[in-house]
Amino acid sequence: GIATSKVHIFVYSALFALPVAALTLSGHSGYVFMGIMLALTAYWLWLGVQGFKNGTDDARWARKMFGHSLIIIMGLSIMLSLDAWLP
Fold first, then answer.
1. Is 54 left (phi over 0), alpha (psi -120 to 50) or beta?
2. For the residues of 26-76, what is the DSSP string, one character each?
3. pLDDT at 44 (0 to 100)
4. Per-residue confidence (pLDDT) for residue 84, from 0 to 100
5. End-to-end CA distance of the chain
């Protein structure tokens, strides 16, 4: 159902931060990459929390989450591509 999906989405969003941080901490990417990606992930988590509030329009919330997930994937791809040139 919708409630279970919201929990799964939130958990997935929170777990996404682990590989982002691991890439930097293991030396495969820089701190600019980690900072930008963790900021995008923090906003994703904030959106996830908004889905648990009473009176939330589930369809509108789902569209926002989906839209931001596309931004996250695009950001990950761009940041990994540009990471070699960033300080």
1. beta
2. TTSS-HHHHHHHHHHHHHHHHHHHHTTSTT--HHHHHHHHHHHHHHHHHHH
3. 95
4. 83
5. 45
Cβ neighbours around 56 below 10 Å, total: 14
Report DSSP state, residue 14: H
Q: Which residue has the tokens 């919330």?
A: 61
- Residue indicated by tokens 């591509």: 81
- Residue 84's H or E segment, with its range, is none
Structure confidence by residue, pLDDT tens digits, 40-82: 999 999 999 999 998 889 999 999 999 999 999 999 999 999 9
Which pTM was predicted?
Answer: 0.87
Per the CB < 8 A criterion, the answer to whether 42 and 70 are in contact is no
Report d(CA 40, CA 65) in Å as an integer: 12
Enter the tokens of residue 42: 């923090």
